[in-house]
Amino acid sequence: MIRNILTVSTGTLASRILGFIRDSMIAALLGAGPIADAFLVAFQFINVARRSLTEGALNAALVPGYLRIRETEGQVAAAAFAGRVLGSVSLILVGIAIVLTLLMPLTIALLAPGFAGTDALRLAITDARLMMPYFAFVGPVTVMMGVLNAEHRFVLTAFSPVLFNVTLIAVLAVLLVWRHDTTMSATIIAATVGIAGCLQMLILLQRRSWHDRVATPIKISFDSQIRGFFRKGIPGMIANAGPQFLIVAGAIVASASPAAVSWLYFANRLIELPLGIVGVAMGTVLTPELTRAVQSGDRQALKTAESRALELAIALVMPAMLALIVLSAPIIHVLFEHGAFTASDTLATAQALSILAVGLPAHVLTKVLSPAFFSRDDTRTPLFATLSGIAVAILFGLLVGRSFGANGVAASISLGAWFCAGVLAWRGVTTIGFSIDETALRRLPRIAICAATMGVMLLTSQYFVSPVVANAGFMAQLTILGGLVAAGISFYGLLLDLLGVVNWGEALIALRVGDLRDQDTRGK
Prior knowledge:
Radius of gyration: 22 Å
Oligomer: single chain
Distance between the termini: 20 Å
Number of domains: 2
């Protein structure tokens, strides 16, 4: 399981790094004004739809049903089920794309009420309409990713999103060299989103996938199996996109404050790196793993999988949270303060990032806890937790957003994330008996101590390094920041070993053995 999580995490890391490059270029082109706010509201709208379906979310609905049919009726029946899902989902999403395109003025008015009566409203409507063709391609992408994950083929699904960012980066590079006015640049980028989605679909629908017949024949059907899939799938998709919906909820409140949408967007991009590496990978790998344990009735395997997942998630997310809080200003400065993105934008974005980072562990806990419900075909509980968190975020944001601006909205998002995680944890303990073993109970406090010590080390180091960074060039700043991050990771890893949380030599051997076993299984 850990090796599969690392595979998905590596692909997600590559995609996230390219995403940073993409967003850094967007910041340089558009800055943090009304045009950027309009573009980013539209882009967030598309991103929520994309991530609610693609980044592990479809596992919650498709994987348990696919595996159950494969076990009881065989591979051909499972492939036919996936083919019907593929055709039906694609048809529905094309219909939704057409309806939303026609109703886009109303949609944007609901998503950004603060844009009313401004040019930002018109620009956001135009940008969103240009991005809508992506809906036509996201259907095949989501189904193929879910089925390939169920078959334990994570490499292709992990790295296919990379092409999405590569396409956007290529267009952005041309725009930076061949200068257009800001409005035209935003329009061109918006039109590119649909093309990038098409290329991502083509990667997943390449010849090898079809020869393996994992989703054939393609049919449009709404029989009892497909209706059951949608009954369970729609709540699961919404629940899996909880972090993105919280950001959208924040944007609804922030749209009344100039540039607040942009500050929150760029701050959230840093949150999505560890969230993607840990949370999305957990959701992608854990759901098939827990589903097999539930179907086999192996309670010990279930408890072990839940315990190791929780350990790994906490071990990765705690130092990430502290690093983002301590290094928020230099990170935002190095990544985004170029071109139209000013020093004042850096300060505001860094403050929002520090507050959003407080909610990062809650987002990851949600990703770890949700598969325990999905594997039991329970999508309603994660849906209820997500909607509750969104409601808390909106209500608190309305109370403090006007007084504290982007910082108040960031606080409301973090509060909503913790409320959602709390509901899932409470329901997990009281209804399905979610528990962890003695090994996890022994390791988790030690992980917290290691992370806190690393945070103190980074804070102390930054105190001495800050005067040097302030007068250094870009490459020197990037090198120093990278050195701080590398030193923090190395120090944290050493502490984990010293406190007996992990033995790195044994861990590498275990990964190698797991790889050899998988190769032997494929050979047979």
